[in-house]
Amino acid sequence: MVTQSSPTNVMWSSRLMFILAAAGSAVGLGNIWRFPYLAGENGGGVFVLVYLACIALIGLPILIAEILMGRAGRQNPITTMKLLASESNASQFWQVIGWMGAIAGFMILSFYGVIAGWAMAYVGDTATGDFVGISGAAASQVFNQFISDPVRVIGWQTVFMLITVSITARGVSQGLENTVRYLMPLLFLLLVTLVGYSALTTGHFLEGLSFMFSPDWERFSGESVITAMGQAFFTRSLGMGAIMAYGAYMPSGSSVVGTATTIAVLDTSVALMSGLVIFPLVFANGLESAAGPGLMFITLPIAFGQMAGGQIFGTLFFVLVTFAAVTSSISLLEPAVAWVGERLKLSRAKAASLVGAIAWLVGLGSAASFNVWKDVTLPNGWNFFDVMDQISNNVLLPVGGILIALFSSWLLNKTILQEQLKEDTAYLGLWLWLARIVAPLGVMMVFAVTVLAWL
Ligand code: TRP
């Protein structure tokens, strides 16, 4: 085990807490907002199948790699990579994993805070009955008016970022652990309630189920594969060291593979359950399943507005989304906070405020992309928000993922590897095969296609 260079002495109080925190990171807007609309746009069942394959063959091995390297290094991702590279006699180039991760974290957090702010605003709007009996046209208008108002959008983004920073500032056990301890069980409870509501009241539950699980191969395309893989990274918080940072606080002596599998199952079930909440509502109200990013902010309010109890359940739904976003955003902030704190010798509270303020500032650009900066675009039509989203999700995360898979499986010092996976020797061979070959090749293929499509 690596012990020099003052490893962190902060720990999750149990393996369960680590699982809740990592699941909290994984379960977020990606599951509730992004997954259903991507599934809707990409023909349901086919997309879901490809997504599940990507999760198993690419997502799980990389998740395992991040946890085991984080736990071996016990530092922030940048220092961890530096340490593991020297221990493995590998080039210091591999620190780039940590650096790219911190940058990707900023970029994601900047737009994540904006969308999370929208969801928070919708808690109030739904609770006060703004959507009761609303028509489709009126719902789009409400949404479009809201996002074109910079003051409201930035106001909510600011509230969201303040919550994120104040949790992170309190540290791993007081801040992160206490948050996930309560929010995660509550989130599952809310979700199960909403699935029940959808099943009992819509009369279209089976239609939703069949949309999600019976593949319509006609709609299978290269595009769905690319999107499904990007989603597999995003939803699992992979490729940027977020899970590595959390792994640094994981107690030794528990199985990495078992823990990773639990996180993967939780994350995937939340995505599938969100689909089971949303699609029956969509079909029951004759709405469009391929509505895109507006599915959650336009389509759902219409559906809730038509349903008995929709005001209450709609409010609960947006509360759920907000909780899920909070537990994810704290993990986006964590790697950079841990690094800045150590590097500049700042207290956690100061480091969190500094990093949070910068992320908020960058986020203003994303907030403005829907109003005052709407027409400020690159030649290819991307506004600031699109640049942040595309570069982080389609470039930095996949490249980070490839590097993490390659380093951990080919280069990492074998003694360290065996020590970390000593509870998992039965799976070592399978994991090595997936992490050395299957995952990097898979990601590279999809990555190449994405980049070619841009040129
Ligand atoms: N996984 C989160 C979601 O599904 C988003 C997220 C949190 C994330 N931390 C991350 C994505 C780190 C990439 C990297 O909403």
What is the annotated CATH architecture?
Answer: Orthogonal Bundle
**Gross morphology:** globular
Structural class: mainly alpha
The CATH top-level class label: Mainly Alpha
Sheet-strand content, in percent, reads: under 5%
Oligomeric status: single chain
What gyration radius follows from the Cα positions, in whole Å?
21 Å
Mean pLDDT: 90
Tally of DSSP β-strands:
0
Q: Distance between termini?
A: 45 Å
Bound molecules: tryptophan
Helix content: over 70%
Write the H/E string, N to C: HHHHHHHHHHHHHHHHHH
Task: Write structural notes for this entry.
This protein has 455 residues and is mostly helical. It has one domain: Orthogonal Bundle (Hydantoin permease). Helices cover 77% and strands 0% of the residues. The protein has 18 helices and no strands. It is globular. The N and C termini lie far apart (45 Å). The model is unreliable at 1-5 (pLDDT under 50). The structure holds tryptophan. The site of tryptophan has 16 residues, from helix 1, helix 2, helix 10 and helix 14. Tryptophan binds at residues 25-26, 28-31, 108, 234-235, 237, 240, 242, 328, 331-332, 397.
Search tags:
455 residues; mainly alpha; Hydantoin permease; disordered N terminus; binds tryptophan
Topology readout:
Layout (H helix, E strand, L loop, with lengths): L14 H12 L2 H13 L3 H29 L3 H11 L8 H32 L8 H12 L2 H20 L2 H30 L3 H9 L8 H14 L6 H6 L8 H29 L9 H13 L3 H34 L4 H21 L15 H28 L2 H7 L4 H30 L1
Structure described in brief:
With 455 residues, the protein is an all-alpha fold. It has helices at 15-26, 29-41, 45-73, 77-87, 96-127, 136-147, 150-169, 172-201, 205-213, 222-235, 242-247, 256-284, 294-306, 310-343, 348-368, 384-411, 414-420, 425-454.
